[in-house]
What we know:
Layout: H1 9-19, E1 23-29, E2 32-41, E3 46-54, H2 63-77, E4 82-88, H3 95-106, E5 110-115, E6 125-131
Amino acid sequence: MLPEWFGKADSNAKYALQAESLDGYLAESEGVGGGLLLLKQASAVSAEIYWMAVDPTRHRSGIGRALIATACEASRKRGVKYLFVATLHPSVSYEPYQRTRRFYEAMGFVYVLEEQFPADPESPLAYYLKQM
Length: 132
C-alpha cells in the first residue's frame, strides 16, 4: 500500500524480520489496521522509530500522531529521554518524503545528523531527534 516509501523488497524483508522482535504499536479502528510503528531500544536513554507506516487513505487523520504519542509514553516509562528516526535526507526532493519530514518536524523532531552510504549515494539519510 506504500510503494512511495517502501518500494524496496530487500528493505521490506528486513523490516518484516525486525517486526518479529521489536516493540510494535498498531493503530486500528473497528478491527481494521490503520498504521504500525516499530520501536527499537538503542540505549538506556534512547530509542529509534525503526519503522512507521500509516494507510495512505487515512493520512492526516491522527493515526501517525497517536502512534508517536503511544511510543513516546511507553519509552518514557522505560527511562528513555530521546527518540530518533532516520528518513530520506532533505536534499532529495522526493515529495512523499517531504511529507514524512514535515510530519516528524510537526511532532517535535529536529534534524540533527546526515549520513551518506557509499553503496547507495542516491539515498542519504537524515536523522531527526526528539527530546522527551
